[in-house]
Write a structure and sequence with these properties.
single chain, mainly alpha, 3 helices, flat
Length: 56
Amino acid sequence: MKNLIEENLLAFVGTRSDTNSKEEHNVEKFFENYFLKLDYFKKHPEYCGLFDIPGD
């Protein structure tokens, strides 16, 4: 479990997402891809996705 946590953490912090750049949204895709690999969301993809927040 420790290795899995470390692997995911390193992948997350290694995802370039500089504010006000074209890379800013890379972290969104990172999380979407991560969650879509989980069995629950494979079975229920309608509960996973990227959604705009008004005013954000």
